[in-house]
Amino acid sequence: MKTMSMNQSITTAKHQLLLVEDDLNLGFLLVDYLEEAGYGVKLCRDGISALRKYEEHPYDLCILDVMLPKMQGFELAKRLRASHPEAKFLFVTAKSMKADKCIGYELGAEDYITKPFDEDELGYKIKAILRRTMESSQKQIQVYSLGNYHFDPGKQELVHGENVIRLTEKETAVLHLLCKCQGQILKRDDAVEVIYGKRDYFLGRSFDVFISRLRKHLKYDDRVRIENVYRVGFILNVE
User: What is the largest CA-CA distance in the chain?
Assistant: First the structure.
C-alpha cells in the first residue's frame, strides 16, 4: 500500500467508521490512513466484538472483511441489518468471485473492494458512500418533539413556543445523541468518542458542560429532564 495522499481531498465532520479486520498489520495501516484523512476509527478483530461495539453506538459506516474469526463478514452484516436497518457497510475481501459480490450486495452492501487494493481507492469509496448518506439524510432529518419543545438537528434549533434557541454544533450533536436513545442510558465515554473521535477525561468534562447548557435550554418544561446515571452517563426522559 502507498502513503497517504488524500488528506486534502477528503473533508469530514468526524464521521465514525467501524473497521473489522483480523489482519492487525493491515488494520493498523488503515486506521492510520483513515484517521489522517479526518475520520474517527474503531478497529475490531472479529465479528462478535464488532457486533458488540456497534450495539454500544451506531457508526456512519462499517468496513467489513468477509473472512473473519468467530463470525464472518456476511453474517455480521446480516445481524447488523436485522437490528439496525440503517447500518451502512462496505465489504473488503481477498475473494473476487462474482457470487461473493452478489451475496454482499444482496445483504445491502454500499460497495465492495477486493484485496490487494490501493488506499486511495478505498478512501474515495468511503467518501462517496458518506456523501450519498448525508445527501439522503439531509432530505429527511427527523424533528424531535420533547414535551413543549421541538428540536430540529438540521437547523440546530430548539423551539419552545415563539422562542427559538439557536444551538451550537456541539450542543446539537449532544442533544441529537440523547434523542436517539431517549429513555435509555447514553454512556458518557461512548458519546465523547462519537463527538470528538476519541476517549479522553478532559473531553468528558467538556461534554458535561454541554449537558449543563442543554439543561438550561430545557428548563421551561419540567417534563423534559436529562438525568445523571452515576459514573456511567445520562438519560433523556420525557414524560
Answer: 60
Q: Is the pTM of this model over 0.90?
A: no
Average pLDDT of the chain?
Answer: 86
Cα(40)–Cα(196) distance, integer angstroms: 8
Q: Express each pLDDT in 197-211 by its tens digit.
A: 778 888 888 889 999
* Helical H segments across the chain, by residue range: 24-36, 47-56, 73-83, 98-106, 119-139, 169-180, 188-196, 201-217
User: Burial of 201 by CB count in 10 Å (0-12 exposed, 13-18 middle, 19+ buried)?
Assistant: exposed
The CA-atom distances, in angstroms, between 218 and each of 56, 100, 151, 167, 222 are 26, 51, 11, 12, 8
CA 23 to chain centre: 23
CA distance 8 to 49: 33
